[in-house]
Amino acid sequence: MKLLYLLLLLLTFLLSHETGADEIIGGKESRPHSRPYMAFLDIKHCNNWSSCGGFLIRSDFVMTAAICEGDFISVKLGAHNINKTEETWQILKVKQQFLHPEYNARKFLNDIMLLKLEKKANLTTAVGILPLPSSSNSVLPEEECLAAGWGRRGLKPPRSDTLQEVELRLMNPSDCKDFGNFDERSQLCVGTPNSRKSVFRGFSGEPLVCSGVAQGIAAYGKVDIKSPSVFTRIAHYSSWINEILKAN
Ligand SMILES: *[C@@H]1O[C@H](CO)[C@@H](O)[C@H](O)[C@H]1NC(C)=O
Ligand SMILES: *[C@@H]1O[C@H](CO)[C@@H](O)[C@H](O)[C@H]1NC(C)=O
Ligand SMILES: *[C@@H]1O[C@H](CO)[C@@H](O)[C@H](O)[C@H]1NC(C)=O
Prior knowledge:
248 residues, mainly beta, Thrombin, subunit H, six-stranded antiparallel barrel, six-stranded antiparallel beta barrel, 2 helices, 15 strands, binds 2-acetamido-2-deoxy-beta-D-glucopyranose
């Protein structure tokens, strides 16, 4: 059953020739609620519903990718299986979306957004905050990090109902030179060198966590299994983030 699932995921991946979303390679199911900062976003945009990942950075603020903007966003916290109601769930509406003013959807630049929730989430064992890096906090190539997510909905089924996670490694910026618009200052090049494991597509907006700190936001990737993915480098945006958090 598990093998079939992985094969289906791999097939889904091979059949989908879409860029603009990250890839998660060789994932496994997370222990339920062991990543309490994870947020699942339901987004309504021009009468279409889509989904993204995100993560809680203050009891009333979620960080995600700018590509996840919408007319209406609802945030689900405390979830493991997003398709099975759990007592730990807290569902909150987004009151205000703070899109980065220099977000460039065509070039995938400055793909970062902050979401102010209608009210504070209750911090519990299943709902918690992920610390942000300071502006001077830099991650280095070879560092092992973790990405988590629910796979992708809205493309082709199946997606994962339960939270999956995978260890990824920071690569040299030169490993992302094939991405024409890769910007070393504001983006991270992330991958699993030499891995031939199965693949599933993650959601934009999901965090890259290194030593317990949010360092990246899943931005985009390629169809080629072995190529790295691009994450937005959070530390680059520290002053913009702090300004918004302070004023709201
Ligand atoms: C919404 O869905 C409709 C029908 O599938 C499609 O024609 C339209 O382009 C979509 N709009 C957006 C903004 O994706
Ligand atoms: C849960 O998943 C099943 C099978 O994929 C689907 O039929 C059902 O509609 C889903 N339920 C919800 C609440 O999304
Ligand atoms: C937080 O807990 C209070 C008291 O139990 C409850 O009234 C409130 O609805 C909870 N908030 C959320 C976001 O679930």
